[in-house]
């Protein structure tokens, strides 16, 4: 299998399967002399860790990360950083009854058609379990960016829509996002989402979500105007996350509804301070960061593994039905928040290093 590596200068390669002994990644291109310890990575992994509430999969994984290389005396050395996370709560028997069937909405069918073989235990390599390794890489990228950009730099993500229920993003509050099981930024919406998702789970179904990622303290000038646009690379990063089916930068798809007057982010200068009247561009103009807050949102489809019986075929080409048992998220989008933050961090650090190499 090719294309397991992401990035240009700051690169990471993930490895492992959902029900294998371990997963992990190798990070290349990390600058030296960055203070880094396992706890810096662990606090990000804990945001994504399964089994923390009744609203996510009950698979119990501690996701304890171990640094195998690239650190000496508490600092990065500039050499490859190797990370490993052991899988501890594997129940492969949950998949025995469906090992010859293709789960609708999953990568089972396309994976088998491409490779002629597949690991049916939780999807193997195509499982969202792989995203734990991305979060680990993103934690290192966050650490480097904080070191280089200072305290003004901050990346935060939240769920802004759960199934058919949205929230009021004008009430966005960073402080409550990690204090509720939905990563919801609007405190007034949480109780409604609780009732809604419990009803979805009770019905044996699932729902989708919209996640918004905001990056502050990003300097102007990151990105390139043609083939490595910052927004193009961010969109590619978000689309690479399991179950993501759409990405918006700034106003995104809604831009088509705006007039030129409404969409243009007017610029003014006041005592050497640059001001933008709005941010429909999401902090990126012509593929290059403007210095404004970078805003990206992406849509995650409903979890395809559901209890309700669905029509499908088996690997012998016969019509059949399937009902997926086991431990699954009623809304996989909830745990996609730290994954989105991680991918944003990796792209921004990659472009930061590219910019330093070319400009100053």
Please describe what this structure looks like.
Helix 6 packs antiparallel against helix 8 (337-358). The chain is globular. The mean pLDDT is 92. The two termini are 37 Å apart. By secondary structure, it is α+β, with helices and mostly antiparallel strands. It has a five-stranded antiparallel sheet, with helices on one face. A five-stranded antiparallel sheet has the order 9-8-10-16-11. Strands 5-6 form a two-stranded antiparallel sheet. The protein has eight helices and 18 strands.
Comma- or semicolon-separated keywords:
five-stranded antiparallel sheet, single chain, 25% helix, globular, alpha+beta, 360 residues
In short:
By secondary structure, the protein is an alpha+beta fold. 25% of the residues lie in helices and 23% in strands.
Blueprint (SSEs and pairs):
Elements: E1 5-6, E2 11-16, E3 22-28, H1 38-48, E4 65-69, E5 71-72, E6 75-76, E7 81-86, H2 108-115, H3 131-149, E8 154-162, E9 165-166, H4 174-177, H5 190-202, E10 209-216, H6 230-239, E11 244-249, H7 260-263, E12 267-270, E13 273-276, E14 284-285, E15 288-289, E16 294-300, E17 310-313, E18 319-322, H8 337-358
Antiparallel strand pairs: 1-2, 2-3, 3-7, 4-7, 5-6, 8-9, 8-10, 10-16, 11-16, 12-13, 14-15, 17-18
Helix pairs in contact: 1-3, 3-8, 6-8
